[in-house]
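Please, does this match?
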Amino acid sequence: MIVDTILQLKGTAVHTLRDSDTLSDAVAMLNSHNIGAIVIVGIGESVIGILSERDIVRQLSKNPSVALAQSIGAVMTRAVVTCDRTTAISEVMERMTHRRIRHMPVVDGDRLTGIISIGDVVKLKIEEVEHEAEVLREYIAS
């Protein structure tokens, strides 16, 4: 299984903002789309960062009175872990576990082409196990 399998099921829509936008803008987007992270893009829609709910909560705990007015660029994670459509799901799982991340942008060169979450990966793995179990039941019954 590869990343493209997930993207074919869930689609390639990605919600993005610029590093000059504010945490308030990010909170509004996270809430309106019921998502856990936003990819931050630069010129040419290249990935320059990622901002998660966790990043925002950390800023709120430091200085709640000014946190939401901060620019995303001051808070976002700049060392973004990415994959491409042909990356094996097992490799994505390893990266997510090792780096303790829940969202991974999918890129083609410098161009953002999707995003997958740990929830997407778990859902795919459960479906795979259920399918294998069904095939085994059919085999045993025949």
